[in-house]
Amino acid sequence: MTIDLYYTAGSAPCRSVLLTAKLLGVNLNLKPLNLMNKEHLTPEFIKLNPQHTVPTLVDNGFSIWESYAIITYLVEKYGKDETLYPKDPKQRALINQKLYFDMGTLYHRFADYFYPIFMGNATPDPAKFEKVKEALQFLDTFLEGHEFIVGNNLTVADIPLVTSISTYDVAKIDFSSYKNVTRWYAKLKGVLPGFEEFNGKEMLTKMYEEYAKNRK
């Protein structure tokens, strides 16, 4: 059985899938795509994913994209127990809410503020940066009183959130005043297998520097 992952290493959503698979002990056949060279627009890839986005997972012929759908699929199919994604409706609702928070608020606000600067040389927008700080405060509040984002056990919701915060870190957005975020971020570095390999600050910094150099 082959599980292919079409991905771009610097992408936070792709890193979420890589970390989830590593945590589960799922071996992936990695298929990197260079988006700048339009490798995601080949007829072969569009047949797998008409939206031609990364990450895209193909599990023995079953094709699925959108990182949140991929990581929950992997956990439900290959997880050894329910710890990462409990079936209890209330626990699962809390996990799903945090996944949607990452997608619609934490990562979205970062992208809205930072990508025009990084990719288009735009002037930093103070109003957008205030939204970034508000998102960090939300996350800090969610983490108050417990070790992980939903209670005291690692769940699938922690993974995309920590890849987003890693991207904040590489972009030099200071979150040191958010004590719960800082504590949780340090903890995730120690408990997630493959953190430095797929999500480490030094590796990501070099990758983004290389990308910026190639754009010039």
TrEMBL record:
Record domain GST C-terminal: where: 88-207
One Gene Ontology MF term: glutathione transferase activity
Summary of subunit composition and partner proteins: Homodimer.
Protein source organism: Ignelater luminosus (Cucubano)
Chain ranges of the GST N-terminal domain: 1-82
Protein name: Glutathione S-transferase 1-1
One biological process term in Gene Ontology: glutathione metabolic process
Source lineage: Eukaryota, Metazoa, Ecdysozoa, Arthropoda, Hexapoda
